[in-house]
Amino acid sequence: MNLQQYDRVIIANSGGKDSLASFLYVLQCGVPREKIELWHHRVDGMPGDIQGNSPQFGLFDWPCTDAYNEALGRAFNVPVYFSWRMGGITREMFRDRSLTAPVCYECPDGVLGTAGGKRGKPNTRRKYPQQSANLQTRWCSSSVKIDVGDVALNNQERFQHGKTLFVTGERAEESAARAKYKTFEPHRADRRDGKRVKRYIDHWRPVHEWPEEKVWKIIELYRVLVHPAYRLGWGRLSCMACIFGSDSQWASIKEIDPERFNAHAKYEREFNCTIHRTKSLAERVQNAKPYVDMEPLLVTQALAYEYNMPIFVDDWKLPAGAFGENAGPT
Is 330 within a domain? Predict the structure, then answer.
């Protein structure tokens, strides 16, 4: 594959090991850093943009994730651009006879773009996204990640010029559904044959066939200190309060952030709809054990909105969560 043909390479960067490995592999393939952009979708939106019908900001994601991604970009001298649906998952979850919220996205010229939120039918959710490979049922991934990326691509005029490669880090090993993904294909936002608007955008999943061992090997090669969640014991980095979280993960959340756990337990009761298909959070943690040896310093860093640790370390070690529970989106 000729990576040099692309004018820009965008890497969807959750802050997790697979998107990090994808980024490092793109560098290893010789793509100039001035062509690379890291994009992170804020699943909780931004503080202050919740408009009345959502009770709490920061209900789902790890607090330190934004800051970790910014530190990663600075360390590699690569720009990081954020995008989000206003109010994030929480506002969408509490939607009551209202439209889906607009999307905001940062542009290289410093402009904050906004699009959407004006068309469609008012609708009501008032329940959690449900565990499913179907993105209409598991609407969190589509509403605050996939669709947000599409909006940012569709509404920036710069993507109508030259060729863009959009990189994501899904791996076949993660689920039977992801095993069926294509490694390379035109992106959903591609319009290379469009009559009015043309956008040439390819979608590449460079680590799709990689086993987890290979992911950790390239991270070790670059000596990158991974997101604190992995060092606390999490095997995958999605939302902190991921709907696919295991019983042990929810027990761990209850231990390190009881306020967050209690909020989710409360909303399950309010919606009369649990995250798990058959059990409430309270039932799931009754006999579950939290991860062991969650260091207080790491807990403090994971729950902080600043990132105060290094990105590169000489004494690199596999984190506690490596080869651990595969609890995350399918």
Answer: no
Amino acid present at 62: W
- How many helices (DSSP H) and strands (DSSP E) are in the chain? 12, 8
Rounded to whole angstroms, the Cα distance separating 146 from 1 reads: 25
Distance CA 310, CA 244 (A): 29
Residue labelled with tokens 């955008």: 201
Task: Look up residue 63 and give its DSSP letter.
Answer: T
CATH number, position 167? 3.40.50.620
Considering the domain boundaries, does residue 98 fall inside one?
yes
Asked whether residue 306 is assigned to any structural domain, the reply reads no
Q: Which domain holds residue 173?
A: 3-224
> Does residue 264 lie in a domain region?
no
Our measurement of the distance from residue 67's CA atom to the centroid of its chain's CA atoms, rounded to an integer in Å, reads 14
With CA atoms as reference, report the closest residue to 17 among 61, 60, 72: 72
> Which amino acid type is present at position 48?
G
Contact status, residue 242 vs residue 128, Cβ threshold 8 Å: no
Number of domains in the chain: 1
CA nearest neighbour of 42 among 21, 63, 22:
63
How many Å apart are CA 179 and CA 201, to the nearest integer?
22
How many Cβ atoms sit within 10 Å of the Cβ of residue 125?
18
Look at phi and psi of residue 63 and say left if phi exceeds 0, alpha if psi is from -120 to 50, else beta. Answer: alpha
pLDDT in tens, the chain (330 residues): 899 999 999 999 999 999 999 999 999 999 999 999 999 999 999 877 655 445 567 899 999 999 999 999 999 999 999 999 999 999 999 999 999 999 999 999 999 999 998 888 899 999 999 888 888 889 999 999 999 999 999 999 999 999 999 999 999 999 999 999 999 999 999 999 999 999 999 999 999 999 999 999 999 999 999 999 999 999 999 899 999 999 999 999 999 999 999 999 999 999 999 988 889 999 999 999 999 989 999 999 999 999 999 999 999 999 999 999 887 787
